[in-house]
Amino acid sequence: MTHLQNKTAYITGGSKGVGYGIAKVLLEHGMNVAITGRNLSSVEKAASSLTKDASRILAIQSNVSSMQDEVNAIAKTVAKFGQIDVVVANAGVGYFLPFEQLTEAQWHEMIDTNLTGVFNTVKAALIELKKCRGYVITISSLAGTNFFENGSGYNASKFGLVGFTQAMMLDLRKYGIKTTTIMPGSVATYFNNHTPTAEDAWKIQPEDIGELVVDVLKIPERSLPSKIEVRPSIPHKLD
Ligand SMILES: NC(=O)c1ccc[n+]([C@@H]2O[C@H](COP(=O)([O-])OP(=O)(O)OC[C@H]3O[C@@H](n4cnc5c(N)ncnc54)[C@H](OP(=O)(O)O)[C@@H]3O)[C@@H](O)[C@H]2O)c1
Asked: Which architecture does CATH list for 8-229?
């Protein structure tokens, strides 16, 4: 994708954190952006802080765990911008507890959001992606390749997402659709009820993931970076 100007990105979970950072950088590169989240006022607030140009941003309430929500959100994005060139399946949640304390509800929320949510998003956008020979980026995690104590549900969702994305990549490239999964280490976000502070300066910043997305999108047509690990350069903790 040599030119990003006037292309459209649909980003799930763009009201804060990684999705917000990606939206910011893609807007800076001239793209139109739709962002989603479960809470409408948060998504609308994020949209108006991202840009004052309402013609280039769309805030949508959608829960990725609902296929109908994603179908409706994709339709709204196409109605406003006419096409979808890039889908960033970013929305995710995490609960980190010993297995015996992990509840059934927490397990289902992680699998339904982090894994089924990505399936729903890409399925709903597939017709549009085929038309544009578009790009799918999924946000997995280093937790999709490294397992750890208290991570059973989150690890399951992110290991599953890596396998799903890699196999889907092989299917979709036949249509000229590229798929990349990005696997970050610690990012300074609101994840798991965290609030970023100055002490998070050592972590990857959300905009850094945005810059990585731009690099991925701009790689020459013949090449497809299918899986990318990214971690803080200075390890304040094991990452
Ligand atoms: N932070 C890290 O260190 C880190 C590291 C590796 C990977 N990741 C991954 O990065 C992605 C983004 O996380 P983050 O760190 O940016 O967390 P965050 O700051 O908590 O942001 C999560 C975003 O996802 C949205 N969201 C959550 N559940 C959703 C659902 N069911 N449907 C639609 N939107 C939903 C949230 O909005 P609402 O709450 O309003 O829905 C919010 O916009 C996740 O997939 C996470 O696993 C994060």
From this structure: 3-Layer(aba) Sandwich (3.40)
